[in-house]
Amino acid sequence: MRSELLTENIEDQIKEAQIKLGYAKETMHFYYVISSINAILGTDWKDADMAVAELNRNTTFKTALPGGLDFGTHGGRVEVTVHPEGVEYVHENVKEPEFLKDIIELFEKKHHCMVEDICAVFEKYSSEYVCEKMPEGMDFDYVMYFRDKGIDKYCYCIKQEMGHTIYHRFLEEDYRNLCMGM
To answer: Domain count of the chain?
Structure first.
């Protein structure tokens, strides 16, 4: 089980929320569909109940972040609870990724940014990125990601509608599952 990858993903999500909303020493909850948990951990659990039982038996997660991680089920998904001490630890010890800060700043300043605006942020970090129009019928218009996962390992799915542009970021495996589900 690749427990460090789940901890890293949780830290990434906490940091993204802190960049967007600011820091608050509070409990945070994250929800994973079973395919995401399996992809991150390299497991093949059949459902959220099985995953939660195994995760709660794994003592690694009791010390993954200060306060530990707690696991439960919610709506058929795995719910991960991060206690205030863990949220504070991320705030004080995990560096804000420069690329993520720039993307969030773009979306905050330009609610209807164009794909070219987003490409310019990617280009600032590397010319080796992908910007593809998504297939007809998908929930998003474009997908963008770096070929060098050392810059940023996420796939950014972009949607433009009703005068706003939004993004959702997915791990590569989740993005592939999203595309296969169409």
So the answer is: 2
